[in-house]
Amino acid sequence: MQIQRSYCAPFSTYRNGTPMAPCGAIANSMFNDTIDLFYSRNSSVIQVPLLKTGNSWWTDKNVKFRNPESYNLSSAFAAGTARPPYWQKPAYLLDEEDERNSGYLNDDFIVWMRVSAFATFRNLYRRVRRVRHFAEGLPAGNYTFHISYNFPVTKFKGRKLVILSTVVWCGGSNPFLGIAYLVSGTAATLTGFVITGIHLKLRKKKTYFQK
Questions:
Q1: Do residues 184 and 99 both lie within one domain?
Q2: What is the model's pLDDT at position 205?
């Protein structure tokens, strides 16, 4: 397994020369809290079924990210590499229930590696599995979060928020990107008309002077 040190520094290798897999500061800081959601229905508490796959882009899952070619994923990662220093477990154990969602093909890892352009960002963590009581989404009622705090943010005065949102084919419910695209597109179109008008006007004047 080859490590591009120029892209991964300073999280590329340990002092004894063992490469980190995956390498780099972004991978090392991967979000690793565990969040479970529970629904209080009458006198019972029901755990909301959440999907941990299907949350990443198809191109990332099938084109950009690849696991080492090996019949055994654990042996491929254990052979001469070690987990990043801030990780609690190696890459091949990111999903112990489904090996197809482990290693570099883990959805949580892929979503985290798509870097945001801003310091404040949202990442898709889970989707509700629409079965039984949740066939139409989350019914009205009381909910409780159980969160295993593993990702420290107090050192750099950061904050973590859990946001319940509706995601459609074009993304989340946040209208910022849609508004930004509309404003930018409208401004570009108007600018194009203005430049075209100026060009035609100057061309007419140039033809007049040439006569």
A1: no
A2: 64
